[in-house]
């Protein structure tokens, strides 16, 4: 008896558009039972798989780097492993691939639509692209990957409309409709049914560039320069990570992050952290995009077997990691000194 093919949803969107938040919401829905999640991140330290709340054997972190090249092999291997587990009787009814915010979706789609191993067990169920209503316009102006993500979507989800001006939202909607005439534009709280079962991917009705991007991938013309350094996307973009063994003073971290986003916001494409804060026994999540810094979240508990070290991951544009490191060290030291003097 031939098994039914497992649907694969590609979840994409530029840095900080809200993919992990959407994923956590989706995974709680009954129709997502038996869903395996593959996560790809940009940077030396993977964090997102720790932030996806359904932390069991079905969350797989693909090697950090861009899905466009180094990770394509990893994607095929991970899908092959999942298919073997499904054959052996494990319930895997659906797969979600969450891409790094810097990923070009063309190679991923090309892999899912043409790799014989993948095609034997899976069918592409659609591309869901998140677009941030605050930073979306500027991102589309400056990042070709963001344009590709929007143009190749089967479903477009607009996030952060509550903190964007109505004019910005209207302008962004018009631009997205021109970039992608066939994808419905959905709100951030769209139910799973609106995002899933989008049907086979087709270039019909899309802007002509989509077909040519896929064509280029088919002939292997993708970014060879990435192979030299998976953490560098174009000359100005790089990821850097910091790990701290001792609990951090909240005053120092918060003040420094505020200063950094105010003064160098354009250069902070993304910051995300899982922090051990002094005096707080649960992990604190911080995240921001350019000039927007979101209120910190406190998770219910540390992930199992976690060593409770603080981890901060940045994706920077035209800003040296050393500048970030020195500023952080100075603020943390100052906050610790202040604490000490209060104790006397």
Automatic annotation (TrEMBL):
Any Pfam family the entry gives: cobW
Entry's Gene3D superfamilies? CobW-like, C-terminal domain, P-loop containing nucleotide triphosphate hydrolases
Matching InterPro entries, A to Z?
Answer: CobW-likC_sf, CobW-like_C, CobW/HypB/UreG_nucleotide-bd, P-loop_NTPase, Zinc-reg_GTPase_activator
Q: Which UniProt keywords apply?
A: Chaperone, Hydrolase, Nucleotide-binding
Catalytic reaction(s) noted: GTP + H2O = GDP + phosphate + H(+)
SUPFAM superfamilies, sorted: Hypothetical protein YjiA, C-terminal domain, P-loop containing nucleoside triphosphate hydrolases
SMART domains linked to this entry: CobW_C (SM00833)
In terms of superkingdom, the source organism counts as Bacteria
Q: Which part of the chain is the CobW C-terminal domain? A: 237-332
| Signal peptide stretch | none
Relate the protein's function as given in its record.
Zinc chaperone that directly transfers zinc cofactor to target proteins, thereby activating them. Zinc is transferred from the CXCC motif in the GTPase domain to the zinc binding site in target proteins in a process requiring GTP hydrolysis.
Q: Which PANTHER family match?
A: COBW DOMAIN-CONTAINING PROTEIN, COBW-RELATED
Annotated family: Belongs to the SIMIBI class G3E GTPase family. ZNG1 subfamily.
Q: What is this protein called?
A: GTP-binding protein
Q: Which organism is it from?
A: Roseomonas alba
Lineage start: Bacteria, Pseudomonadati, Pseudomonadota, Alphaproteobacteria, Acetobacterales
């Amino acid at each position: 008896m031939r098994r039914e093919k497992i649907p694969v949803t590609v979840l994409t969107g530029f840095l900080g558009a809200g993919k992990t938040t959407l994923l956590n919401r989706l995974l709680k829905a009954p129709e997502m039972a038996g869903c395996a999640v593959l996560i790809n991140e940009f940077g030396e330290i993977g964090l997102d798989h720790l932030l996806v709340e359904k932390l069991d054997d079905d969350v797989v972190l693909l090697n950090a780097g861009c899905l466009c090249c180094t990770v394509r092999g990893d994607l095929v291997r991970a899908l092959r492993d999942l298919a073997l587990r499904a054959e052996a009787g494990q319930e895997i009814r659906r797969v979600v691939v969450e891409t790094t915010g810097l990923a070009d979706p063309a190679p991923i789609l090309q892999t899912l639509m043409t790799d014989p191993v993948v095609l034997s067990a899976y069918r592409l169920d659609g591309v869901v692209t998140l677009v941030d209503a605050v930073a979306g316009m500027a991102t589309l102006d400056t990042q070709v990957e963001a344009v590709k993500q929007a143009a190749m979507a089967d479903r477009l989800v607009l996030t952060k409309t509550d903190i964007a001006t109505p004019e910005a939202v209207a302008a962004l909607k018009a631009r997205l409709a021109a970039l992608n005439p066939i994808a419905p534009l959905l709100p951030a709280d769209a139910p799973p049914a609106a995002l899933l079962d989008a049907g086979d991917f087709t270039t019909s009705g899309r802007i002509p560039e989509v077909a040519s991007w896929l064509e280029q991938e088919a002939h292997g013309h993708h970014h060879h320069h990435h192979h030299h350094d998976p953490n560098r996307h174009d000359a100005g973009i790089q990821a850097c990570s910091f790990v701290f063994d001792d609990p951090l003073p909240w005053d120092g971290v918060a003040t420094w992050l505020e200063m950094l986003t105010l003064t160098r916001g354009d250069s902070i494409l993304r910051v995300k952290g899982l922090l051990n804060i002094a005096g707080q026994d649960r992990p604190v999540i911080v995240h921001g995009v350019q000039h927007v810094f979101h209120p910190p979240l406190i998770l219910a508990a540390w992930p199992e077997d976690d060593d409770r070290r603080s981890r901060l991951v940045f994706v920077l544009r035209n800003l040296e990691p050393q500048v970030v490191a020195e500023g952080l060290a100075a603020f943390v030291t100052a906050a610790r000194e202040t604490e000490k003097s209060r104790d006397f």
